Amino acid sequence: MSRVSRPKGTGPRVVELFAGVGGFRLGMEPHGFRTVWANQWEPSTRKQHAFDCYVARFGESPSHVNEDLERVMDAAEAGRVEIPDHDVLVGGFPCQDYSVARTLNQALGLEGRKGVLWWQIHRLVTMKRPPFLFLENVDRLLKSPAGQRGRDFAVMLVTLANLGYEVEWRVVNAADYGFPQKRRRVYIVARLAGPEPRDAQEVLHRGTLGRALPVVDTQLGQLFESFVIDGDPAEVSESFGARRGESPFRNAGYMSHRRVWTVDLAPTWDGPRTTLGDILEPIEDVPEDYLVPDTQLGSWRYLKGAKREQRIHKGSGTPYEYVEGAIPFPDPVDGPSRTILTAEGGPTPSRFKHLVATGDGRYRRLTPRELERLNGFPDDWTDTGMPEGRRAFMMGNALVVGIVERIAAELAREIGDPA
Ligand SMILES: C[S@@+](CC[C@H](N)C(=O)[O-])C[C@H]1O[C@@H](n2cnc3c(N)ncnc32)[C@H](O)[C@@H]1O
Is 100 touching ligand 1 by the criterion CB < 6 Å? Predict the structure, then answer.
């Protein structure tokens, strides 16, 4: 396997994209990885709270760039910015439309949609050829878009195959491995491929992801799907999933040399389990404004409750019946929490924000510190000058550090120390 050479006795080098408040870095550093360059830019706000937090926690050095990755890549390709060589490229990137337009002259290469960040990762991988990629995304990536299920992931796989990479993926719910939050994400590990695919069953069960996050040993048999993806990304973009109602990508898979093996695997875990109750702060430490005022309780109950009601569509004026089920009120504390979303912060009543009972007949929201604990960040990690609502937003965007840590441990073993 080809490797970028690095000095003996030094940990593997990481470039971190879409760094946010540094969840990948927190999970990788305990296993000897060194972040040599990072990029974070929030397009929707002038204030760059995530970047500021990352710098406050990790320092400026060696290099952390607060600029739209697309502009950074323009500058890198023009030779105005130097992105250092690295062993692993990591990042949690947005799930967007990855379709590819057919260029008149194929030699001009791919033409993905503007603003779609996968194509910036692709540019960086094309330029630097890191031996490993370690990426994270929402599990919807495997099934999107709605009209052509699985197309976006297929485009991603074929573009990686064309750059010489093979790919393992797994959808992981952090709560299945004892963490205190139900957070389901797809983790993707890619590496420069050898001359032939490896044994698919072995990779699926005991590859990097299978060793990090063990699965029940199944007879893959009938659940196992195997197919080949076309080598032309424009063709994949046009036709993949067009004739099939559901995505062929199951919750675990392996792609090598454009061949795909995929199967639904079940997690196994007999270690300790942490509950929402375990991470709660004592009520004496919870500021008053996290308690729900009596006057708001009705709104919270209504939003979280089951409903079947007549509504009028705002655009067309057409009446329709709106139906939704109840979600727990208050949130149970004897198991893992629901997923933190970016809108978790602020006192406005909401269906999806967490509310816990205080034990004396009142209800309260979760504090930023508790949200950090649910993702496994150190207490007050995001207490770096941003408003509390933004701290919650950061945790809605972030990942479960312990999952990264487990995968990083396996990657560190595989990459090893240079001879
Ligand atoms: C899913 S979050 C990743 C969070 C991160 N893993 C963490 O632990 O905090 C995606 C990040 O990409 C950043 N981002 C969005 N568009 C970007 C762009 N064009 N260039 C660079 N970063 C961008 C967002 O600000 C956000 O912090």
Answer: no
DSSP codes, 343-379: GG-SSS--SSS--EE-SSS-EEPPPHHHHHHHHTPPT
- For 19-34, write each residue's pLDDT tens digit: 999 999 999 999 999 9
Q: Go through the domains of the chain in sequence order and give each one's CATH number.
A: 13-271+400-415 (3.40.50.150), 276-367 (no CATH)
124 lines ligand 1 (CB under 6 A): no
**Nearest residue to 1 (alpha-carbon basis) of 133, 192, 254:** 192
Asked whether the beta carbons of 259 and 247 are under 8 A apart, the reply is no
Against a cut of 0.85, is the pTM above it? Answer: yes
353: nearest Cα among 395, 317, 413, 382? 395
Q: Please state the atom number of ligand 1 nearest to the C-alpha of residue 394.
A: 9
Mean pLDDT over the full length of the chain: 92
Render pLDDT for 211-242 as a digit per residue (tens, 0 to 9): 999 998 766 545 677 899 988 888 899 889 88
Please choose, from the candidates 89, 79, 32, 24, the residue with its C-alpha nearest in 3D space to the C-alpha of residue 57.
24
Determine which residue's CA is closest to atom 18 belonging to ligand 1: 68
Catalytic residues: 95
Q: Is 342 in the pocket of ligand 1 (CB under 6 A)?
A: no
The tens digit of pLDDT for each residue in 362-407 reads: 999 999 999 999 999 999 999 999 999 999 999 999 999 999 999 9
By most ligand atoms within 8 Å of CB, the mutation choice from 397, 401, 404 for ligand 1 is 397
